[in-house]
Amino acid sequence: MLHFETHTHPNGAPWVVFVHGAGGAIGSWRYQVEAFKPFFNLLLLDLRDHGLSKNMKPSFDSYNFEIVCKDILEVVDHLGIKKASFVSLSLGSVILQRIAVSRPPLVDKIVMAGGIFRATLKMRFFVHGGKFFDHILPYEWIYRIFSWVVLPKKNHQFSREMYRKQAKKLTNKEYMKWVGLYGEFFKILDECFNAPMLNKSLVVMGAQDHVFLKAAQRFAKKQKETKLVIFEKCGHICNIEKWKDFNRVAVQFLREATTNDLESQPLEMGMS
Fold first, then answer.
1. Picking from 140-149, 187-196, 208-217, which range would have the lowest pLDDT averaged per residue?
2. Given this model, what pLDDT does residue 218 score?
3. Helices (H), the chain
4. 253 or 262, which is more confident?
5. End-to-end CA distance of the chain, in Å?
6. Is the Cβ–Cβ distance between 235 and 243 less than 8 Å?
7. Vertex 127, ends 132 and 232: CA angle to 5°?
8. Could you give the count of Cα atoms lying within 13 Å of 190 in the half-sphere of its Cβ?
């Protein structure tokens, strides 16, 4: 089973499950725990091979989204969670949308930080470039290069370095298994982009997220049940770089979102 941590509310509360991105770990949510736990029961997971989720059985030569989602659902079932809201980061948004499709009764509200929604030309270049360099460079070098590409500015430095430290726990062999996700990655993005999002959802992006922001804006405009918040002077990992703003809008959304709140078109906000 995946390594996980729980923070339970003494008086009982709704569950919130946190799903980090590729190369991350439970530590990706270090600035969220204290803000969320007064209101919710929290479940934080290390995805397979990440953090402390090592040497899991059964083992696979490569991974797909079914394997990754099944790992998460195994922990959810183990804890007896019947309904939960989910918070994701980066690639976690794709995993989360697959879980919402495969088990609709489980998923309540959704918050996606730095979400990935569309296979744009720039994203395809990054993915195929990464696959090419897989055969030439060690994983750590690839991750360092692409972290600079995705988070190039000075104000991104802290979140960039934090994610690099977490990513060092992945071995080259483990990373190559995760490359297997690319086989269905673009197909799943297209399916999720074009299908209606049935859950009330909040997408939180950084205005400086030059790789993923435009697709997130198009996604939010298509989805009746989705709100979009954009933080100014912020990059891809917005839950770390603008953690106070992120905690405020995410907790408010999870506690107070109602059908009436989401009847209008997606809302786009700028925050300092």
1. 140-149
2. 95
3. 33-36, 65-78, 92-102, 121-133, 139-150, 157-167, 172-178, 182-194, 213-222, 238-241, 243-256
4. 253
5. 40
6. no
7. 140
8. 5
| Token pair recorded at residue 243 | 């953690």
Handedness of CA 17, 18, 23, 25 (dihedral sign): negative
User: In this predicted structure, what is the pLDDT of residue 131?
Assistant: 61
Q: What is the pTM of this model?
A: 0.90
Look at strands 270-271 and 107-113 and give their pairing: unpaired
Cα gap 197→227, rounded to integer Å? 11
Cβ atoms of 109 and 85 within 8 Å: the answer is: yes
Q: Cβ contacts of residue 256 below 8 Å, gap of 6+? A: none
In the predicted structure, residue 271 carries a pLDDT above the cut 70: no
Amino acid at 226: T
Check residue 267 and give its pLDDT: 40
Domains in the chain, start-ordered, CATH in brackets?
4-271 (3.40.50.1820)
The C-alpha atoms of residue 116 and residue 93 are separated, in whole angstroms, by 6
Residue with tokens 């993915």: 127
Between CA 209 and CA 102 the distance in angstroms is 29
The three-class DSSP label of residue 18 is strand
**Hey, what are 8's tokens?**
């339970």
